[in-house]
Amino acid sequence: MNQQDTASSSSAWLLTWLILAGLVIGAIVGQILYVTYDADVPAAWLQGFRFLGDTVFMSLLKMTLVPLVASSVIAGVASIGDPAHLGRIGGWTLAYYFSTMVIAVVLGVILVTAITPGDPAGDGSGIGAAVIQQGEAAYQSESGDKRAHIETTGRGGIIGAMRNITEQLLPSNPIGAAAQGQLLPVISFSLILGVVLTVIGEKGRPVLAFFEALFVAIMKLVEWILWLAPLGVAALVAWTVGRIGIGALGGPMLWYVIVVIAGLLIHGLIVLPAILWLIGRSNPYRYMHQMREALMTAFGTDSSSATLPVTIDCAEQFGGVNPRAARFVLPLGATINMDGTALYEAVAVVFLFQCYGITLGPVELAIIVITATLAAIGAAGIPSAGLVTMVIVVSAVNGSLAALPDAPQLPLAAVGIILGIDRILDMCRTTVNVWGDAVGAKIISRLVD
Ligand code: ASP
User: Labelling 279: which of 38, 90, 108, 154 has CA 20 to 30 A away?
Assistant: First the structure.
């Protein structure tokens, strides 16, 4: 190891420890405030944390996203060259994303139907009127914007979600979409442009060189921004814990929380590593360790999109992922591959039906497997996106139940039951989302080599 390598590896370690300390200190400070102010932390504290975490740190990360995604996908695609080879790699990437999400959903459905967290007595009586009333009241007092978003998504159903994805894949105005920070349209336009640049060869060289240089510049910027990550994640975690309190994870929600976290742990620590070991032929836990900064940033920010720059940085610098794979597979993964969200949506939906004493048959469970996978694909890589797209699954199941004689239905207000603790579970599922993307990039890396 030369001197420069030693310096960069010791600064990577320092950053890791600082981010970890930020996560722990943020949780402790948030909880102390929550307890000190008896669950009513003054707005000034919360606004201060939000300012540091969201307005400063997250905005800096998000600032890099559109230029990073565009330059990364264009340079990545062009570096693969041959469009037929690219097509094969793209096919494998989508197959990996889709199958791991289905595995995650099935795992979630098995756990939640076996443990029945929404029906503690196990006799179909549900979770109790008090919890339901509290949940519905929480839904009504949620900001009108969020409710409107949930209701529109629910009304649009699965058809609306598919139309939305298609519109994003075929953007009529990619620059307009980029200006609004939408990543999927930027990715699909960049994919096409990357292929075209390869096809036109020499003539496209200056444009390609521009995007290659832009990528290098943005990655440098990301490395600088990352030094703010310890402070940023500490503020974000303090903000979340200060509002919710760690105790919210207990009480009647305890078993629900246990099922979600157990599912995420099984998927993240056993299923994905097994896939990486079998297909990617590399040591999964060493790779997880190499991706630690990205995983911790995902946990702190609740956003796989905002974490994307860090994910690319770790995968290329420490994870040994071929840049040609990382630059094309990771942006796509951050936008459509969400194993944690898929698992979470399945668990949450079955849980809510259990709470209301509605038993789901095999047909409804099959509908959940399909729609939760699609809803997770449609969820943007931003905080709480999974909570909103989850109502697509609820409305699909309600639609199927409507054919039954006494037509039991789950009211949308049921979402209120899980609203309060969503942010904390979001931290966990986002970490698994990013880990799933990273595993995908490592596997696809072998095909590109
Ligand atoms: N926050 C998640 C992500 O960014 C999406 C979700 O809400 O499940 O990956």
Answer: 108
Ligand 1 lining (C-beta closer than 6 Å): 302-304, 338, 341, 379, 381-386, 426, 429-430, 433
Summarised one tens digit per residue, pLDDT across range 285-297 is 999 999 999 999 9
Q: Is this structure's pTM higher than 0.90? A: yes
Centre of ligand 1 from the C-alpha of residue 203, in Å: 40
Q: Residue 201: which residues within 8 A CB-CB, separation 6 or more?
A: none
CA dihedral in degrees (181, 186, 188, 193; nearest 10)? 180
CATH number where 421 lies: 1.10.3860.10
CA 243 to chain centre: 21
Based on the structure, what is the number of domains in the chain?
Answer: 1
- pLDDT tens digits, 217-250: 999 999 999 999 999 999 999 999 999 999 888 8
Residue 334 alpha carbon, nearest atom of ligand 1? 9
Of all protein residues, the one whose alpha carbon is nearest to atom 1 of ligand 1 is 383
Closest CA to 151 of 401, 388, 379: 388
Q: What is the CA radius of gyration of the chain?
A: 22
For 7, the domain range is: 3-448
| Helices and strands counted in the chain (H then E) | 21, 0
Question: Distance between CA atoms of 32 and 10, rounded to whole angstroms?
Answer: 33
How far does residue 307's CA lie from ligand 1's centre (Å)?
Answer: 11
